[in-house]
Each structure stands twice: as structure tokens, then as C-alpha cells.
Amino acid sequence: MDLDLDEESKRKAAPRPATPGGKKSSAIGTLGNLLGRAGIRINGDAPWDIHINDDRAASRILAQGSLGLGESYMDGWWDCAALDIFFERIFQANLTEHVTAKDVLQTLKARLLNLQSSRRSWQVGKAHYDVGNDLFSEMLDSRMTYSCGYWNVANNLEDAQAAKLDLVCRKLGLQPGMRLLDIGCGWGSLMQFAAENYGVSCVGLTISKEQAEFARQKLSGLPVEFRLADYRSFNPNGDEKFDRIASIGMFEHVGHKNYGAFFDACKRSLVDDGLFLLHTIGRKRTRNVIDPWFDRYIFPNGELPSLSEISTSVDGRFVIEDVHNFGADYDKTLLAWHARFEAAWPQFASQYGERFYRMWRYYLLCMAGCFRARQIQLWQTVLSPSGVAGGYLRHS
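The line above is the sequence of Cyclopropane-fatty-acyl-phospholipid synthase; the predicted C-alpha cells follow.
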């Protein structure tokens, strides 16, 4: 990931120390009043309070919203001891409703343009998932499962991810000899678990070259196959059929203009009596909003669906058999990833640099706070082409 600033940007980003004892600027006063609605103080004593290191931070945040908040943190212009609680309070107080012109522009782009076109869909693979297998290996569990764990019967990351993978396999009713298609397979954690524990063969689709190459070597010897392909170009005539399909943590990159094409690809690739499990982060209302900071630095062209968008998109294509929300578990998952990232950081510091460290920390803890505030959700939805005879039985 190329996060270097050009010389002009570096000059602008150079910290300008806050003036001690000086008259508080109008921008700092305005920001302080806004944050005060969430019980957050500027230069306060609570761990969720923010500390201004550069006088320009307040103006930048007020002018640029989410993008200014994230970039000024990356540049060291402000700090917070407990970023996850800071964001939990921000989201609980709905301070994100105070949008800037740039936020509005980003929203209009999301509504009017197809930001997840076939050409653009590969950008997130290069920008995020190809950032470094070594870093992800240290941050994630042993199977490198980059999605929400299931903490109902677990008290550590390894067990929570194993429980989630087993939950998916049981919800799909996997049996030996079945073929499983994993759309957005990542490093193949589900395919590895399903092949080893349920005796199925698997095909995985990914748009990350780094993931595919790494996973092929890691899982050699298992009946799993990785294909570097976008879902729209996969199996165009429906000649290849699978007994079960799963898509875990990929639908967030599809975009509302492509939901129909996504479910069509699943429909044509599934046998008539098959099952499809969709595991996705989602928002509590339909907005088609793309956060400008996350779009620039973490998930280019990402877009969270609402449950109504999913149900509308499967109308006429699938029967919704089951919906399971365990979004609160993502808070624990993200905190576990953050703890492992912090522990491993010394070995990556010289390779990635301080700005990347602050970016990645901001990403993980912002998301943790957002899930804790229940602003975003995690759904597992089980779908069937024509309805399960006698009804579908939930496995949990």
C-alpha cells in the first residue's frame, strides 16, 4: 500500500505544536462543543478524551469531517488513549450526522456512480488485502480468518474463529462429497476448515493475487482450488454447479448497483436444492454512504448494505430461510486483532512506518467502537433457491 505523502503534503502535515496557555481558537471551541455532546473533552483526563498536538487539528476536522479526523490522527495532530471508547461515544451520540461538503459529495458519488464496477473491484485487493501476508499472519488466527468470530462459546480469538467456521458449515448442512463455492475466500480459512472437518471439496474466488498465491501454498494437499476472478465473470453460463455456496466478508465490496448481478452469479452456480450463506457487515438503515477516510485508506469503493437492500435484491431469486445477527461479537474480534497487531508491531515498524501504524490502529479501534455502539451489524443470512421442504432448521 502506497501511503507516502508528496513533499507539499509532508510540509502541511508537519505538526505545529499547540500554543500553551494561549486563547483557545474558535475552531477548537466549536469542536469542543461538538465533542461535548458525546461526553468527550479536549485535553481532558478521561481515556476517551482527545489531546490536541497541533493547533490546526480542529479546523481540519471541522472542515473535512471523517477524512480530516482520520488524516489528522495519522499525522499525529491529536491523540486519544482509548480510541475505541472515543468512537463508541461518537457513534452513540450520532455525531456522524454532522456531515461536511466532502461527505455529501462522497454520498452522491455512491448513489450516482458504480464505484464497484468490474474494473474498480480489483482496487481493494491491491490496496488492502495485498498489504502484506506477514502482517495479517501475525494479526489474525492460525487459519487467517479475516471476518467476525463467534464468541458465544469461545473466550479467545482462535476458538471464536473456529466456532464461526463450524457454525457456517453446520448452517449449510455440509456432508462428505459435497462441492462448496466460497465467493471472496480470502486466505481460504473456510475451505480449509470445511475440507478438513466436513470432507468437502472447495473452489474459492478472490480478487487478491497475494492472498491466492499464499493460500495455494499453505493449503496444498487439500481438495481446494483458488481462482483469481471477479464474481461477475465467474461461470457465466451456469455450467458449473455447487451443492453449497458461502460468501463471508465480501459482500461489503459489491455495492448496491451490483447486488442483482451478485445474486444472479450465486443463483446460476447453485444446485436446485442447495443452500447459500451470506455473511456480511451491514448498516441499520439504507443510506448508500461511503465513508471518505475508509474509502481512501482501508476499503476503496466499499459500501455496507442494509437488510432491506439484501431482501429486495434476493426477491425472485432466493427464499430467505434464516437471518442471524451477532454484530456485537465483532467488537471482541477487532479488539483481539488490535492486541495481536500491537504485540507484533515492533517487527514491522521499520517496514511500514509510524503513519501506517496510526492508520491501522485507527481503523481497528474505530470499527470496534462502531460495532459496540451497534451502529453497524453483522448478519449471516441463509438462502435457498426455492425453499427448504418442511422448513429450514437454524444451527447455532
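Note on the example: The beta strands are 50-52, 78-80, 179-183, 201-206, 224-228, 242-248, 270-283, 319-325, 376-384. The chain has 16 helices and nine strands.
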